[in-house]
Amino acid sequence: MPNFGVNQFSDLSTEEFSSRYLMKDIDFKNYVAPPVHDLSKVAPNVKGCNPDPTNFDWDSCGVVTPIYNQGACGSCWAFSATETIESYYALQGGALTQLAMEQIVDCDTAGEDQGCGGGFPTGAYTYVEGAGGLEPLTDYPYSAEGGESGSCVFNSGEVAVTVTAYNSINGETGLYQQLSSSSGGPVSVCVDASSWSSYTGGVLSQCGTQVDHCVQAVGYANYGESGAYWIVRNSWGNSWGENGFIFIEIGQDLCAIGDYATVVTATSA
């Protein structure tokens, strides 16, 4: 059962929480899904991680960066994309490197992608590929936590990692296949998080389907058994939820978790 209680959002109204921490003005009806990812065409990751079919967390493999905090900015889409690029760069041979989500927030203004106003992870991938890559977080630190993006100050000479392809994951079955395969890894997912503000732990068993937030699925527990759940990393700091994570019940596409899921191919720039 989920637990709800007092946390950093308790003094906010529903509207205040939505306007500051979610993407209330992004319409996922405009989302264009990329081709479905085919694991059969992907070589096992060089990390040599071999997920257990019942319980596994990619954090245990050393390919998940620490929990971030987006602050009062609807930049979750940039965080979700950046976290997934970080993970696949590590899986595909690079060192686990914290990358500059602020670069995406400031510089990607195409289509639905509008900084603190929200966007799509697929738009972020397209931007990163076209720009030639992302700088390290140390060179372009996050500064939009107050709710405003900054001017683009991207330095192509500092790029560490770039994206060469991105693909969709098809539903909860595809999500499990990706998370449980030695050729897989974490997944960017976009969800309905309108009921998450007071979550403090346990397994979420009820949720809406109006997508307004993007996060990263990093594992699962008790798969195929009673009480199965996804392990999902959020970007509201490690004081929220289960040390920055939320557990979401498997089996009913809760929060639309399998509807807007993507992975990337990431390499050195």
Walk me through the structure:
The chain is of the alpha+beta class and 269 residues long. The protein has helices spanning 14-21, 76-91, 101-107, 121-131, 171-180; strands at residues 3-4, 56-57, 161-169, 187-191, 199-201, 203-204, 213-221, 229-233, 245-249, 261-268. It has one domain (3-268): Alpha-Beta Complex (Cathepsin B, Chain A). Strands 2, 3, 4, 6, 7, 8, 9 and 10 form an 8-stranded mixed β-sheet that branches. A hairpin with a 7-residue loop joins β7 (213-221) and β8. The chain is globular and about 50 Å long. It starts with a strand and ends with a strand. The mean pLDDT is 95.
Sheet-strand content, in percent, reads 15-25%
> What share of the residues lie within helices?
10-25%
Structural class: alpha+beta
Task: Say how many strands there are.
Answer: 10
Helical stretch tally: 5
Outline the biggest β-sheet: 8 strands, mixed
CATH secondary-structure class: Alpha Beta
Radius of gyration: 17 Å
